[in-house]
Specification:
The protein is of the alpha/beta class and about 500 residues long. About 30% of the residues lie in helices and about 20% in strands. α10 packs parallel to α11 (about 300-310). The N and C termini lie far apart (about 60 Å). It binds zinc ion.
Length: about 500
């Protein structure tokens, strides 16, 4: 017996050490089988409708080690021996995964509002492969290297898709060049600021002088400044503060408190500093991005003018401004409260026109949830309820469903939701199905309709506050790949959260 034991010992040691290597080689990485619902990391995706920068093609996309390594058109298949597994999606659309440059995941500090795990599971289920987290609504706000570090800690092993971070430009750091540089050196992809109160105490508003300073620093990093462009005007504030008899349940009254003139005032003021971003200007290299445009009248004209004058400026709008109009919002239904507000149907038509015409550059969710209690759904008080639309998981089917009547194409979807957002966030390896890029891919069926009700698998933390609940939508997400990992497939997520934090270098 003793001899036998000794004979087995080296073998046992070898077995133990290889098991050790297998499981403990890199404790920071989950094993591949947990990160992906697919057991292999070299495979092909085929479909008759693959959306590439060169158009929609029938082809096979080869994925290896998380990247797209080749794309073979259908007519060339016979010449190509495909080694590895093939997943055939038939007629389903294969698009670059969506990049949502404007999401509030509220983690750390207000994870009960959303949090990284539920937010990124919802993103994965909606075909979003990357999201850039806003610096506010978490607690603390991300306005320094220390607070960015808290974000990274909160995200560790808790994100199912890739997540990048905007830093906050606030009065406290705006004139402190080294503080801003430290935040950008630590990996913030750019900065975000407000020209009106943000509703969050540790995220005060900035004026044009702060923004000018911020742009000067950003210029050296070639990163953008995202701005919430509304400035309080007496007109709106007067309605809110001085009229006690105002029925706070009436949506029309909320609308009066934030008129288009607030957006116009902010954008005109922004343009006084936007000219710094022109070639030869003091902030050449910096870029201004106006978030969630709602006013499609003068505000949009001002932006067009700035673009034609050579300013480095882009603008996004959100699905809720394209899907809903003020006339349809029922009094007391605070699920629809956001800022700037959803305006009338004529404005909505003009937003679509601007989007289709290329004057609005991209889309974002501005997913901004809270706990149901703060939405005051019972009371229906539009003036006091939390402002923010909860939408993250639904943005692809919403854009598609409401856009079909305007003739939205698959290429446009990919441009608004992937290519341009990737550029804004400085992600050269994302945003397109192209050789060398990350294999961030969504497979979806544009023709399947579904009711967004309690039977539908929903992953955002508080579905009851979403304005989309109860809608009938078309466009079902079948599968979502993040860097080659199948992170979501028809109601199932990969067991481990293997998304990567994205830091600017
Ligand atoms: Zn926002």
């Amino acid at each position: 017996m003793e001899n036998l034991q000794w004979r087995f010992l080296p073998m046992l040691t070898l077995l133990a050490s290889s098991l050790f290597l297998l499981f403990f080689k890199d404790p920071s990485k989950s094993s591949h089988s947990e990160c992906s619902l697919l057991p292999y990391n070299h495979f092909w995706i085929t479909s008759k409708r693959i959306v590439t920068p060169q158009g929609v093609i029938s082809a096979a996309v080869e994925i290896k080690g998380g990247n797209i390594v080749s794309i073979v058109k259908e007519e060339d298949w016979h010449r190509n021996s495909k080694t590895g597994q093939v997943i055939d999606y038939g007629d389903a659309v294969i698009m670059p995964g969506l990049i949502d440059v404007h999401a509030h995941l509220d983690d750390p500090g207000r994870a009960e509002w959303e949090g990284f795990p539920s937010g990124t599971k919802a993103a994965a289920a909606g075909g979003i492969t990357t999201l850039i987290d806003m610096p506010l609504n978490s607690d603390p706000s991300t306005t320094s290297t220390e607070t960015l570090k808290l974000k990274l800690e909160a995200a560790e092993k808790r994100i199912y898709v890739d997540v990048g971070f905007w830093g906050g430009l606030v009065p406290e750091n705006a004139f402190n060049e080294s503080a801003l540089e430290a935040l950008l050196n630590a990996g913030a992809l750019g900065l975000k600021s407000f020209m009106c109160p943000s509703g969050i105490n540790d995220f005060p508003m900035t004026d044009a002088s702060h923004i000018k300073e911020g742009l000067a620093v950003l210029a050296r990093y070639k990163r953008p400044l995202l701005v919430h462009a509304e400035i309080q005007q007496d007109s709106g504030r007067h309605v809110e503060l001085e009229d006690d008899t105002l029925d706070s349940r009436l949506y029309s009254n909320y609308l009066k408190t934030r008129p288009p003139s607030w957006e116009q005032a902010a954008i005109s003021e922004l343009l006084t500093v936007a000219k710094d971003t022109r070639i030869g200007g003091p902030a050449e290299g910096a870029h201004l991005h106006i978030v969630h445009l709602s006013d499609a009248s003068s505000s949009l004209d001002l932006i067009k003018e700035a673009k034609s004058n050579g300013c480095s400026i882009t603008v996004e709008t959100c699905p809720h401004y394209l899907a809903f109009s003020a006339e349809e919002i029922k009094d007391g239904d605070t699920r629809f409260k956001c800022a700037p507000p959803i305006r009338d149907s004529a404005n909505k038509e003009k937003l679509w026109e601007a989007l289709m015409g290329g004057h609005i550059d991209m889309l974002s969710s501005d997913h901004s949830p809270t706990v149901p209690e703060l939405k005051l759904l019972d009371e229906g008080n539009f003036l006091k309820a939390w402002g923010g639309i909860s939408s993250l998981q639904f943005v692809l089917p919403v854009t598609w469903s409401y856009g079909r009547k305007y003739g939205v194409t698959l290429e446009q979807l990919a441009s608004w939701w992937s290519e341009r957002p990737a550029k804004l966030a400085g992600q050269a390896s994302k945003g397109a199905i192209a050789v060398g890029n990350h294999a961030d891919i969504v497979a979806w069926d544009p023709d399947t309709e579904f009711d967004l009700n309690d039977d539908h698998p929903i992953y955002i933390k508080h579905p009851s506050i979403s304005a989309y609940l109860g809608s009938r939508l078309s466009g079902k997400v079948l599968a979502t790949f993040v860097r080659g990992n199948l992170v979501y497939k028809e109601g199932n997520h990969a067991p481990a959260a293997c998304g990567s934090p994205i830091l600017a270098k």
